[in-house]
Amino acid sequence: MNYIIFDLEWNQPTEEATAIREPFYLPGEIIEIGAAKLDEHFHVIDTLRVYSKPQHYKKMHKRIASLTGIHDRLLEEQGLPFPEAYRKFIDWCGEKYAFMTWSMSDLPTLIDNMALHGIDISGLPDWYDLQRIFGREIMRGTVKYSLEYAMEVLGESGDAAHDAMNDSVNTAKICDHLDLEEYLDEYASRVFAELPNDRSFDSQQTVLQDPELLRFSCPWCGKAVACEGWIHDWKQNYVSYGQDEDGDEFYVTLSVSRLCDGTFRAKRIFQEMSDDLWEQYQDKKEALEV
Questions:
Q1: Where are the alpha helices (DSSP H) in the chain?
Q2: Under a CB-based contact definition with an 8 Å cutoff, are residues 9 and 165 in contact?
Q3: Count of alpha carbons within 13 Å of 227, Cβ hemisphere only?
Q4: What is the maximal distance between C-alpha atoms in the chain?
Q5: pLDDT recorded at residue 290
Q6: pLDDT at 273
Q7: From 50, 183, 222, 274, which residue has the greatest number of CB atoms within 10 Å?
Q8: Residue 26 carries which DSSP code?
Q9: pTM for the complete prediction?
Q10: Is residue 213 within 8 Å of residue 270, measured between CB atoms?
Q11: Distance (Å, whole) CA 223 – CA 217
Q12: How are beta strands 44-51 and 231-234 bridged, if at all?
């Protein structure tokens, strides 16, 4: 089993009015995949950097270029079409692997870009949120910490941030301080994605009250899954608990985006419920009741 720590950088439209809305709203187009491969003992055995040449947001946003150091010429000379870049990354991962990331924030962008290019999104592997594991096992709480802060706490030095491969290698250094062989299984969760859609809502409240967003089909048996009402997580993200009649349980994340025309879009991601996700959900429910 390989454990793949990866990070993404993506370009954004230079103006919100030029954002892609068909076949769905695309907030970011991936320009770099950086990764560190860990063996079964969580030792780094290889690294990878792949640049992807954007198809839609071809002109680099000035802020993104300044932040990442990635410019138009670099992508023109070294960037691969996204399907080729993604295939190179997946082939490099090996036959059996799980994903690790610092937070789950890159996941929606990865799904968007896969769906945009017709890449199957049904076979995502087990996924581990190292930000969550660090917070629970090192800081003994539920606060979300930045990667830079975690490295400072642990006395680690690293290469410059906002570089996908550097961030992956820096994240791998955090693993040296985590007893992953002891408790990693507590945090395992299979991720299920649905194809993005172009449904439009006139307000955030309309999104949260839409009954269709509180139902979906179980990815294993196809039976209906009914969800509880949404609980605010952070920023424009909400979470819910869902269960089908066979007792399969899911942790559901809803991301709400406001477009420049005043309309709203909603995106869901489903995770197989784990002990850790159940605790996380209960913590949020209890905080709501206080």
A1: 62-68, 72-78, 82-93, 107-116, 130-137, 147-153, 164-175, 180-183, 204-209, 275-289
A2: no
A3: 29
A4: 55
A5: 60
A6: 95
A7: 50
A8: B
A9: 0.94
A10: no
A11: 5
A12: unpaired
How far is 235 from 238, CA to CA, in rounded Å?
Answer: 9
**What pLDDT score does 241 carry?**
98
The CATH number of domain 2-187 is 3.30.420.10: yes
**Bridge partners (DSSP) listed for residue 10:** 30
Does residue 220 contact residue 248 with C-beta atoms inside 8 Å?
Answer: yes
User: CB under 8 Å to 95, separation ≥6 — which residues?
Assistant: none
Write the pLDDT tens digit of every residue in 80-111. Answer: 999 999 999 999 999 999 999 999 999 999 99
Residues 273 and 243: their CA atoms lie apart, in Å, by: 10
CA torsion angle for 205, 211, 212, 213 (degrees, to 10)? 50
> Can you read off the two tokens belonging to residue 209?
């009250």
Q: Are strands 249-258 and 237-244 parallel, antiparallel or unpaired?
A: antiparallel
Q: For residue 234, what pLDDT is reported? A: 84
Stretches in the chain below the pLDDT threshold 50: none
Q: Give the pLDDT confidence score for residue 46 in this predicted structure.
A: 98
Identify the CA nearest to 173 among candidates 16, 14, 38.
38
Two structure tokens written together for 13: 């439209």
